[in-house]
Specification:
The complex is a heterodimer.
Chain A (H helix, E strand, L loop, with lengths): L7 H10 L11 H53 L8 E7 L2 E5 L2 E4 L5 E3 L4 E4 L4 E6 L2 E5 L4 E4 L6 E15 L8 E5 L4 E4 L3 E8 L4 E9 L1 E6 L2 E7 L3 E3 L45 H16 L3 H14 L6 H14 L3 H14 L6 H10 L2
Parallel strand pairs in A: 9-10
Antiparallel strand pairs in A: 1-4, 1-6, 2-3, 2-5, 5-8, 6-7, 7-9, 8-9, 9-12, 10-11, 11-14, 12-13, 13-16, 14-15
Helix pairs in contact in A: 3-4, 4-5, 5-6, 6-7
Chain B lengths: L6 H6 L2 H9 L5 H21 L6 H17 L9 H22 L21 H20 L2 H12 L4 H8 L3 H22 L8
Helix pairs in contact in B: 3-4, 3-5, 4-5, 5-7, 6-9, 7-9, 8-9
The chains are: A alpha+beta, B mainly alpha.
Chain lengths: 371, 203
């Protein structure tokens, strides 16, 4: 066959011109009837398939619309109806017996399952009842007949106010390393970053008595904003003084609490009195007032004001027993306020005075960061 | 839309009415659709195979089902005539069937025409045999080509559709349809040069 024969056009033309068969047999009524019957079925099936798909799409659309409306409503409820609802500060992991949760002045019995706790929420266990909470840094077990209140944590601390009863606290020092857990009682504050301990508040004839017992690690105990004890594992402290099972070590300037905290304790029965400032006897009240004002400013988030007040305390009472604590708080406050250069300078000053101070690592990190 | 059994009325329906009836699930439209399209479907399937296959009616039924499904899904763009579009569907279904048979290596065994086949024109027996042999080779070659090339060449050069119509049927631009046609012809030429007797030296 020649080269010309392999060209497709003539062959395709032949294909196009190929004679078609006569259709006498194809046009039989039987054949038509058979095809039409099959086509009717096909029309019916196709229509049903289309309807099913349409219904499916409608269901999907309905579900999607309902979900969108639900999400929108949820968002509006969060944003609009409860604008002041704060983020959870803790969660109830388990309860047994009757436990009452008071939120916004309304109390209700807590059921099973975790429930979010917010700033200002109070929890009370009845006789024989127990509850377990988890905050960002600690696990807190409430004993029977216990009442506590939770506060919004900040970078420096998370605070649990124990009114009465007993809590066992396990603090995970690997979480939020710069944050302390503070258990505040009517008589004292227990400050810790990582340990296991328990705190009891018992009624006494005058007011209340706070007992602290440490199982692991060590805790700082403050009264009126001043360190009154440093407890190690196995040691106990009581605001009743004579009832202490294990003598607490005397507070020393070299061992300040990791976070000097909060308002002065309200007990009038604190057994350990703050030592008067050696340089200026009789100024302790003023030192405490300045310190408390600074802590309150810090707790309000006014870091610059806190740094100023701590600075005023350090400048006015350079020999104050609160000096080291105030120095730590000041460089933290300056750092929080974004004054990194001044914070680093304060940290270096702290390191020069307290080479082995408990906040030395933090101070070094701050000093190095600023360089 | 369609009166039961009223063939005369069926024939009076235009394409649009037929399509709407199918989309509305009106089973009575089947006879009208059959009458409108059976001829073009029959011929297209016949041309792809070159004869009336034993399962010719099955293929025609498949074509009609495909037409109904496509109409129901509203996939038919209505840009071209219903008969033209049906020929495209028919050639597509027929080529797929032919490819399937080639894969099964059955096509060569079916070369003998069925005894019932009745040609409108018959010539000299020897010449007829040579022509049949060549055309069978063209069909076999088309089946081996890329489907879009083969179908474009078939629709244009065998069924005689315009490029613009082919572009609408295949949902491509006219330029793309033309490109497919040119490439398809070139590919067919190259393959025939090899396949036809004496074509080896032409590569």
């Amino acid at each position: 066959m020649s080269r010309h024969d392999s060209h497709p056009e003539p062959l395709l033309r032949q294909l196009a011109e190929q004679a078609l068969p006569s259709h006498s047999g194809d046009q039989s009524p039987e054949r038509r009837e058979r095809f039409v019957r099959g086509m009717k079925d096909a029309v019916g099936r196709a229509f049903e398939r289309g309807e099913r798909k349409r219904r499916y799409r409608q269901v999907i659309f309905g579900v999607a619309a309902a979900a969108a409306i639900g999400l929108l409503g949820f968002g509006l409820a969060r944003e609009g109806l409860e604008p002041s609802a704060p983020d959870a500060v803790a969660g109830i992991e388990s309860v047994s017996g009757t436990v009452v949760l008071t939120q916004n002045g309304a109390g209700r019995v807590v059921g099973t399952g975790e429930r979010a706790l917010h700033h200002g929420d109070a929890l009370q266990t009845a006789a024989g009842a127990r509850a377990r909470l988890r905050t960002s840094k600690a696990e807190v077990n409430l004993g029977e007949a216990t009442e506590l209140r939770l506060s919004q944590p900040n970078a420096a601390e998370e605070r649990i106010s124990l009114r009465r009863g007993r809590i066992d606290v396990a603090v995970d020092k690997t979480r939020f390393e710069r944050r302390s857990v503070v258990v505040e009682t009517p008589d004292a504050e227990v400050v810790v970053r990582g340990t296991v301990f328990d705190v009891r508040v018992e009624p006494s004839s005058s007011a209340t008595v706070t007992h602290v017992h440490v199982t692991q690690g060590s805790v700082w105990v403050l009264a009126r904003g001043v360190q009154v004890a440093l407890l190690s594992a196995g040691q106990s402290w009581s605001s009743g003084g004579a009832t202490s099972a294990t003598p607490a070590p005397a507070p020393t300037p070299e061992e300040p609490p990791p976070a000097a905290t909060a308002e002065p304790a309200r007990s009038k029965a604190a057994p350990v009195r703050p030592q008067p400032s050696p340089g200026k006897p009789g100024t302790l009240a003023e030192e405490n007032r300045l310190f408390s004002a600074a802590v309150e400013a810090r707790n309000r988030g006014e870091a610059a004001r806190a740094a100023e007040l701590f600075g005023e305390l350090l400048a006015t009472y350079p020999q104050s027993p609160l000096r080291e604590v105030a120095q730590v708080e000041r460089f933290r406050a300056l750092s929080s306020a974004g004054q990194t250069t001044r914070a680093a300078a304060e940290a270096r000053r702290y390191l020069a005075e307290h080479a082995d101070g408990v906040a030395r690592r933090e101070a070094r990190a701050l000093a190095l960061d600023a360089e | 839309l369609v009166a039961p059994g009223a063939r005369a009325e069926d024939e009076g329906l235009d394409d649009e009415a037929l399509i709407l009836a199918v989309q509305g699930g009106d089973r009575r439209v089947a006879s009208a659709l059959y009458d409108r399209l059976i001829r073009v479907v029959d011929h297209t399937v016949y041309r792809v195979f070159g004869r009336r296959e034993a399962d010719h009616d099955d293929l025609v039924q498949m074509v009609f089902e495909q037409i109904i499904v496509t109409l129901s899904r509203r996939s038919y763009a209505r840009a071209c005539n219903l008969r033209t579009w049906a020929s495209s569907i028919a050639s597509h279904v027929a080529f797929n069937a032919l490819r399937s048979r080639r894969r099964e290596r059955k096509v060569l065994d079916r070369d003998a025409p069925p005894e019932s086949e009745n040609y409108a024109a018959r010539g000299d027996a020897e010449r007829e045999a040579a022509v049949r042999s060549q055309l069978s080779l063209v069909r076999a070659t088309l089946v081996e080509m890329k489907p879009q090339y083969a179908e474009t060449v078939f629709l244009h050069d065998v069924l005689g559709h315009e490029l613009a119509e082919i572009a609408l049927m295949m949902r491509v631009s006219v330029a793309a349809a033309q490109s497919r046609l040119v490439r398809g012809r070139k590919d067919l030429h190259r393959r025939l040069a090899v396949a036809l007797p004496g074509g080896q030296g032409e590569r």
